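Cobalamin biosynthesis protein P47K
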Amino acid sequence: MLGECGEGRKICRRAHILRRTENESEALMRKIVLFSGSSAVGKTAVLSWVVDCLRERGLSSAVCKIDCVSDEDKETFRALGVPAVAGISADICPDHYLVSNIPEIWSWADGRGSDVLFVETAGLCNRCSPATRSMVAGCVVDATASCKAPGHLGPMLSQADFVVLTKVDMISQAEREIVCRAVADVNPGAEVFAVDALAGYGVQALSRYIETAPAVGTYEGDVLRHAMPAGVCSYCVGECRVGSAFQQGVVGKMEFEEDAR
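Structure:
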């Protein structure tokens, strides 16, 4: 009996491999979607609604959260029945950390047969973006922030395919249009979605956009959309003493102009 069961499992396994080999389009249905943005703008809340909407549409998701200190957000997705893993970058820039782990993250999601891999990252300095050309890159923006905020987000916004405006229930229609104008000044080609992450308003349109976004079969040969900033000074490797005598590597110094009087 045991031998028969073992043989049955082998037959099923061979059939699964054969179907996967014959149907190459199955692998091409995979896509990786990046959710970036400043802290506390609502990335996790929006993403929680999105994975639920996609599940209703028959698509399975996996979520990887990159953070600097806490990994508690992964429990939010696990409570929804979504495979989730967290990476803590600690002393390393979270964007550098993410890019260094893309192959492993992809393999993890691929091993779970996910249709969509979501990566939520903690963008800090606004100077760079971990988005690659094969990703569907999104930037989440707090609509209640200053109308000047989009201009300070750098490649995280300028290189995005779509932009999500959160907390739109807290501003007027006129204020929303001002924020949208500010976003368009930085990235005129991005799709913009207004979302109330507490009630789920606007998430359906965002989910449909992600569902129809281009799929990729592999991360191999992928490249960053924007170069990362240099991170090889003495403070990057643990130096704590302040002063020019302790500064080595790539060091940037200010130039002070004389006061105009």
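The two ends are 96 Å apart (CA to CA).
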